[in-house]
């Protein structure tokens, strides 16, 4: 027992007074109440001592030991320290010690997570307003995307928090909206939405649920997808908050609205009450194919179908079209691709009846806040949790699962999900607690998305599959109206581009495996470098081994490729041994594919090599083993090392 130890004690004698005093002090300080093996852990404690054979209890004063009494089998004591002096002694509080004599005592220590709860400062536990972080695991999902999972224990009990950090300065990352079943009406689980959008224009890395929604499945407020307004606000200004990605890619939180007007032929402008919302009395609503298969309106109105539509429905200009037909007293007009429908009731119906086939139509759109003009992505929420760097307060009761989105001082985005309604796993939070949490996590601006059973946290796994990682309170992922996606995009210039998959300048862990080898190792090194400051060294020893020998290098965190590449390339410092250099891919169907860089590495020094990727691979694509260095000929088996640098995907 050469390391410092500390104890728990259930027992008697002189130590009892010290223990009782410590408990009282702990209670006064409001410390967490934590139990271990049927007893309460206290502040300063690091373990417990069980007496199995009679042994002396000592009092230490002025550096000398004084005998107190003989401890009997079955007694237990808290341990607060371990001292190498006097042959190694456990400090059991109040200046009392028990000597470490093998066979007479058994020392036990709680898990580090439990020790953090009662000794947060000593064990480096993070303290948050909602409690102590007893477990924290961070994972790199892709370049610029970090996942953090925290278990927190506080006065309310357990909390389980999931967080994604997205580096918005990374040009290959995008935050996009997804719509259930690609239409406004209806709902769909976040996982299914993410899977449907996956591969459309990049790889979906993660997703969370989006806006609150109505009984018909429509989001409650503004939604913009890839620069086009899907629907406009329905809740009052004071009851909504909107998250958006600006035209230049910056995240923002605010409360914009859109003013819309329509002009038919030479007539005057008429106000449009919204886009893709149910039509109410005297309203004029603009419907797009995003809404549903038809307008779902009754026969008490007029609908004007527009064709030859030019422009994009966003808050920064006009959209034009031509009247294809005017339909009076029917309703429920079909919504066709490339067409729009203006639907009016009452006074709005009277205005639309003036339209004639062939009339030119102009629709003007403008946000009431200039910074939202041309917004690229947006969806609604409800409560502004953090504003101008200050956590907000709410006079709203209720402990529930929560989902939130925040922006830090550098303009990066965080997506946070808190599980709830499951006492053994996670209690959930009030709005005030969530606001404090988002502020402590670094948000200078933050808002809620839908919560409760809707709270869903989806992340791509190392095996390539998208998966719900949190525990939704319904026991399953509830279908929702829309979602926020984190997407890894492809960039392409002049018909050809390269996507750097790993430059070995980071601290990501690589592992070595293989078959029929004496030794195999993988490490980052400065010995041989082609680009930057580090390369990857792959060492092997195949000597005397039968059959096919191989050393395989794989990264602990999966390497995803944004789109279908034509080749994988890298620089290789060969050792002239003539071995076979390959890579292993896994495509979206689970099929494994092997590609060849060189049948014989017969060169010494740096050489750039490429391996062609079959054109029929299914997305998403994972580079499972970037290096498989192999030999089948017993006469060529030796020991050596190669180096690789600048691992990349090639798009042509």
From TrEMBL:
Keywords, alphabetical: Glycosidase, Hydrolase, Signal
Phosphodiester glycosidase domain sequence ranges: 309-486
Signal peptide: 1-24
InterPro entries: NAGPA
Pfam assignment, any one: NAGPA
GO molecular function: hydrolase activity, acting on glycosyl bonds
Domain of life: Bacteria
Protein name, per record: Phosphodiester glycosidase family protein
Organism: Geobacillus zalihae
């Amino acid at each position: 027992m050469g390391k410092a130890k500390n104890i728990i004690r259930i027992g008697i004698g002189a130590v009892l007074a010290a223990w009782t005093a410590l408990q009282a002090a702990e209670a006064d300080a409001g410390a967490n109440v934590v139990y271990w093996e049927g007893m309460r852990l206290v502040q300063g404690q690091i373990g417990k001592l069980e007496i199995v054979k009679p042994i002396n209890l000592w009092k230490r004063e002025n550096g000398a030991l004084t005998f107190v009494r003989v401890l009997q089998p079955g007694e237990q004591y808290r341990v607060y320290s371990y001292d190498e002096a006097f042959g190694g002694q456990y400090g059991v509080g109040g200046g009392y010690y028990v000597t470490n004599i093998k066979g007479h005592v058994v020392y036990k220590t709680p898990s580090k997570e439990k020790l953090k709860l009662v000794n947060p400062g000593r064990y480096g536990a993070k303290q948050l307003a909602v409690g102590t972080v007893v477990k924290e695991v961070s994972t790199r999902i892709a370049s610029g995307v970090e996942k953090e999972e925290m278990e927190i224990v506080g006065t309310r009990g357990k909390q389980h928090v999931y967080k994604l950090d997205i580096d918005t300065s990374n040009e290959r990352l995008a935050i996009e909206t997804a719509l259930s079943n690609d239409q406004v009406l209806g709902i769909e689980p976040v996982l299914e939405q993410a899977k449907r959008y996956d591969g459309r224009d990049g790889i979906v890395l993660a997703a969370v649920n989006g806006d609150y929604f109505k009984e018909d499945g429509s989001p409650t407020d503004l939604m913009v997808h890839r620069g086009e307004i899907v629907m406009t606000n329905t809740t009052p200004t004071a009851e909504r908050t909107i998250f958006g990605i600006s035209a230049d890619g910056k995240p923002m939180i605010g409360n914009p609205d859109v003013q819309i007007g329509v002009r038919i032929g030479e007539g005057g402008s008429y106000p449009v009450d919204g886009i893709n919302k149910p039509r109410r009395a005297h309203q004029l609503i603009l419907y797009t194919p995003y809404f549903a298969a038809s307008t779902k309106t009754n026969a008490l109105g007029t609908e004007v179908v527009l064709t030859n539509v030019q422009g994009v429905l966003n808050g920064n200009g006009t959209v034009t079209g031509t009247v294809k037909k005017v339909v009076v007293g029917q309703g429920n007009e079909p919504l066709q691709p490339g067409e729009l429908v203006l639907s009016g009731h009452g006074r709005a119906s009277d205005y639309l009846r003036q339209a004639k086939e062939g009339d030119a139509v102009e629709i003007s759109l403008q946000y009431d806040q200039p910074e939202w003009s041309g917004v690229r992505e947006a969806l609604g929420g409800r409560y502004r949790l953090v504003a101008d760097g200050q956590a907000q307060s709410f006079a709203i009761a209720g402990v529930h699962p929560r989902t939130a989105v925040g922006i830090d001082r550098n303009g990066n985005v965080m997506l946070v999900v808190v599980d709830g309604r499951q006492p053994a796993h996670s209690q959930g939070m009030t709005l005030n607690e969530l606001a404090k949490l988002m502020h402590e996590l670094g948000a200078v601006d933050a808002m809620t998305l839908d919560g409760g059973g809707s709270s869903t946290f989806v992340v791509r796994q190392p095996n390539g599959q998208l998966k719900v990682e949190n525990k939704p309170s319904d026991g399953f992922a509830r279908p929702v109206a829309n979602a926020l996606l984190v997407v890894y995009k492809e960039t392409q210039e002049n018909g050809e581009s390269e996507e750097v998959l790993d430059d070995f300048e980071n601290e990501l862990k690589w592992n070595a495996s293989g078959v029929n080898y004496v030794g195999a190792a993988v490490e980052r090194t400065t010995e041989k470098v082609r680009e930057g400051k580090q390369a990857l060294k792959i060492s092997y020893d195949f000597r005397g081994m039968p059959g096919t020998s191989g050393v395989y290098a794989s990264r602990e965190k999966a390497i995803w490729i944004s789109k279908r590449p034509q080749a994988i390339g890298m620089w290789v410092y060969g050792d002239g041994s003539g071995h076979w250099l390959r890579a292993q891919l896994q495509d979206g169907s689970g099929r494994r594919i092997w590609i060849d860089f060189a049948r014989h590495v017969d060169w010494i020094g740096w050489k750039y090599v490429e391996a062609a990727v079959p054109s029929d691979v299914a997305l998403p694509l994972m580079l499972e083993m970037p290096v498989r260095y192999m030999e089948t000929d017993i006469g060529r088996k030796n020991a050596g090392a190669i180096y690789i640098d600048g691992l990349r995907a090639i798009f042509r």
